[in-house]
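Running log. JK asked me to keep both predictions on one page so they can be read side by side. First protein, sequence followed by its tokens:
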Amino acid sequence: MSARLRARPLLITAGLLVATLLAGLLVGAADLPFTGVVKALVDRIPFVHLDSGLGPVERNVLFELRLPRVLLAALVGGMLAMAGAGYQGVFRNPLADPYLLGAAAGAGVGATLVIVLIPGDPGFGVPLAAFVGALSGVFLAYVLGSTAGRMNGAATLVLAGVAVSSFLAAMQTFIQQIKAQELQRIYSWILGGVGTADWQQIWMVGPYALASTLVLLAHGRLLDVLSVGDEEAASLGLSASRVRLTVLIAASLATACAVAVSGLIGFVGIVVPHVVRRLAGGSYRVVLPLSLLGGAAFLELADLVARTAVAPGELPLGVVTAFVGGPFFVLVLRASRKQVET
């Protein structure tokens, strides 16, 4: 098991991400030339001037429609995968999910409230409410888990997350019944997607995504220490509870960023970290950065499938990831069971 991030897997993952980003920029109803797209992107670099040959309409399609979409898909995929790796490190469970502590349910309540109560929402209300709701759900789960008992902190926190998620899901269902005519918009958001991506959404969650990314990457070595046990960590002068709390906050913030701008997209936080562990080793100094890049590439690829599978229509992104993640989750569960039996 390698404890260092080697250049080869990093370059392979980064190359895969670049390839999927370019594919996302090229695929669509409007045909854009490859060389023209590349030149137009390079032309945006300071002190570099290239004639891309793209017309005004083509440039508008590239920079106002496709580029925000591919960047948002990369941000959402990277945040969910890295948050999943962080949760799995804290709970020492490869099946831990970014939505474990009530982030999804809280975001659902926040988005539903705006859709139902503010019909003329200008566009930023739903992401903002989902962001606040996701953080609120995690906060409630943590408070409940902290006050319920300290004998088994991780297990108590998970149970608190389940309780909070159930309560918030019931609240969301109740709110939906107030205005049943808005169910289509609500379920469209719940199924997830980045089809309405714009620069405002990226700038809104970008700073929080950057902060959570830096914190999680900085805690890779500490999560490796925690994986050998709390007593060993304490003997090295490491506060296990402080590290877990910091990682939980950062992973929850990353999850909230993703949910706020994309809705609920499942399985990314399970599939990507597990594949990374299989291919590059189990050290979190490796898993966290490769999950960030791999999650971005995975969701870019899923978005390409969502755009093209039923063209000119579009599949919800959460449906595409569920088609991949559902069978994958079963395989991971069977593998974990065999390990326990042996």
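And the second, directly underneath as requested:
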Amino acid sequence: MSVKYKLLIISTSDFEFTNIKCTSLDKEFDDFEYCHLKSVNRTFKYISLKVRMYKIPVTRVKVNFALLKKFNGYKPFLYNITTDACRVLKYPKSNPVFGFFHSLFAHHSNMNHSCPYNHDIIVDKLPADFVNTKFTKILPFPVGDYLFDSKWIVNDINRADVQVYGTLS
């Protein structure tokens, strides 16, 4: 009679924001009122940003987003996708990868409906532990330093860049 043993390894990873950079590339179209990383204490950090939209309604939005991992500088890691954000927000199943990345901030943002956008864009107090759940439980990623780079293209003109840096340990 043979005895089979199962080895259970429990891995706990922890995601932490390290920086955020927001750049308006067309100050007549939009500008960032604020864009910051707030550290409440050693274990609780969140990011917030507000984009003032000067030319509304916004009806044609593309987003290029890339996930980069630090290997002697930031190098492409898994994803570099450009998608029609208005279409994906209307039909979420049309691009599940964009849907995953949108779900990282959708519950903390007013960017949760399809186009047109007749208001400023806000991401309010997105906590690192919310992102941690997505990066470790839903879709596990290897430990390391990451950069989520997004370019917001409206009417075929790149209007803003948002870069979120983080560490998964």
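Observation for JK regarding the second prediction: The longest helix spans residues 128-138.
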